[in-house]
Specification:
Strand content: 5-15%
CATH architecture of the largest domain: 3-Layer(aba) Sandwich
Shape: globular
InterPro entries: 6-PGluconate_DH-like_C_sf, NAD(P)-bd_dom_sf, UDP-Glc/GDP-Man, UDP-Glc/GDP-Man_DH_C, UDP-Glc/GDP-Man_DH_C_sf, UDP-Glc/GDP-Man_DH_dimer, UDP-Glc/GDP-Man_DH_N, UDP_ManNAc/GlcNAc_DH
Largest sheet: 8 strands, mixed
Family: Belongs to the UDP-glucose/GDP-mannose dehydrogenase family.
Strand order of the largest sheet: 3-2-1-4-5-6-7-8
CATH class of the largest domain: Alpha Beta
CATH superfamily of the largest domain: NAD(P)-binding Rossmann-like Domain
Pfam families: UDPG_MGDP_dh, UDPG_MGDP_dh_C, UDPG_MGDP_dh_N
CATH topology of the largest domain: Rossmann fold
Structural class: alpha/beta
Number of domains: 2
Order of helices and strands: HHEHEHHEEHEHEEHEHHHHEHEEEEE
Protein name: Nucleotide sugar dehydrogenase
Keywords: NAD, Oxidoreductase
């Protein structure tokens, strides 16, 4: 077996890249377990590479939404889904035993945290147990869900061995972290390199060959554990830098500076700097959750990570900081927060998606409403949302009402802000407006 240091050395280009003629999966059957924001586009990409797809999900409602194309996908993927949904090589089922019909099984289930920021492994544990129960000899089983270091061995390799299936000879097991960037066409799977580490060298080879059908480059690691840590490192890096961007943004404002031009100026340096931008907090499936998997595991090992701890605490406090900015701005205008008419522009966690998971807008809305404010929102991708324990309809025409203050939370592409007049107070948490209205006058 290669050493850890050997595994990260570049392999010959021809063994990892095939831009002109990527390998086909024609003739292979792939079961994709979990058809959420990762599993569904993964299934479509694999079908596009020639595989016959068995899409498995325990949620009947999700399967109905997939069949009727009522899902949040990029336009290209929606077109693919509309065609696939009518095709015999794209079968959807809630029957776990269908795993046994596949040559390769790809596990793509959510790994959230609970309200105490403790990893919730329930869905992953159940999915892996089901896969182990129905696995057969000859299969490649690929885990993509982000989790703690050791998950692949604990939930797949070990239980398969206990069933009598020898990993590396009877079955092949590997971890390849998902790298989905929802709503961003520049980062489609076919354009994004993949990382993979197997439970043994043969599993790594099998998984790398499989992944090369839908990725421009596959980087191999010696172990599944190294691949698991890679994903935790990637998103912890992002979390720490987002927390830093928020803090330096506040520092700029305290000094009377607009942060955005400062960041753009710093980004002209061609080395040693990567731009991160301030915002209302973080949302979605990765950054609010993944670092907590690392911190949780480190605490059990009695190992401290004070920088990461501080970054995640700062991120958790960020929506409250936005609320304080709103209250302060209203006070400067002589408007009490109780009864104030407040509009939040964009409530999805990022531009280009309709996803509300962990969106800071939800906490901002609830906090302001609890203070007696009359809060509304406008978001072209989210016409209705569950806010403050009730279903809330988004504002159709923000120009039709007078607002005491507008909070710019998420700006989807081509968002029209022409209705904003110079008299309306604005809290632009990402400092994206041409001239920030937050600066002291």
């Amino acid at each position: 077996m290669p050493t850890q240091s050997d595994s990260i050395q570049p392999r010959p280009v021809e063994s990892l890249e095939s831009p002109d003629s990527p390998p086909s999966l024609r003739g292979q059957t792939v079961a994709v377990v979990g058809l959420g924001y990762v599993g569904l586009p993964t299934a479509l990409a694999l079908r596009d590479a020639g595989a016959e797809i068995i899409g498995i999900d325990v949620s009947a409602a999700r399967l109905r939404d997939v069949r009727s194309c009522r899902v949040d996908l990029l336009p290209l993927r929606l077109t693919q889904l509309a065609e696939a949904a009518q095709a015999p090589d794209f079968r959807l089922t809630d029957e776990p035993a269908a795993v046994g019909e596949a040559d390769t099984v790809v596990v793509c289930v959510p790994t959230p945290v609970d309200r105490h920021k403790v990893p919730d492994l329930g869905m992953l544990s159940a999915a892996c147990a089901s896969v182990v129960r129905h696995a057969r000899a000859g299969q490649l089983i690929l885990l993509t869900s982000t989790s703690y270091v050791g998950t692949t061995r604990d939930m797949l390799a070990g239980p398969l061995e206990a069933r009598g299936l020898n990993v590396g000879t009877d079955v092949f097991v590997a971890f390849a972290p998902e790298r989905i960037d929802p709503g961003n066409p520049a980062h489609e799977q076919e354009r994004t390199p993949r990382v993979v580490g197997g439970a043994d060298p043969c599993s790594t080879d099998r998984a790398a060959a499989f992944l090369s059908a839908t990725a421009p480059f596959v980087h191999r690691l010696a172990t599944a554990e190294a691949a698991e840590m890679t994903k935790l490192w990637e998103n912890t890096f992002r979390a720490v830098n987002i927390a830093l961007a928020n803090e330096l943004s506040d520092s700029c404002q305290a000094l009377g500076l607009d942060p955005r031009p400062v960041i753009e100026a710093a980004a002209t340096k061609p080395f040693g700097f990567m731009p991160f931008y301030p915002g209302p907090g973080v949302g979605g499936h990765c950054i609010p959750c993944d670092p907590h998997y690392l911190l949780w595991q480190l605490r059990t090992a009695e190992t401290e990570s004070p920088l990461v701890e501080a970054a995640m605490q700062a991120i958790a406090r960020r929506p409250g900081s936005v609320v304080r900015q709103v209250i302060d701005r209203l006070a400067r205008s002589g408007v009490p927060v109780a009864g104030a008419r407040i509009l939040i522009v964009g409530i999805a966690y990022k531009e280009g998606v309709a996803d509300l998971r962990e969106s800071p807008a939800l906490e901002i809305y609830d906090r302001l409403a609890a203070l007696g404010a009359r809060v509304a929102y406008v978001d072209p991708l989210v016409p209705m949302a569950r806010m403050g324990g009730a279903d809330v309809q988004g504002v159709a025409d923000p120009a039709a009402a007078k607002w005491d203050i507008v909070v710019i939370h998420t700006l989807h592409r081509d968002t029209d802000l022409s209705w904003l007049d110079g008299d309306t107070a604005v809290v632009d948490v990402g400092h994206r407006l041409p001239v920030s209205q937050e600066l002291p006058r």
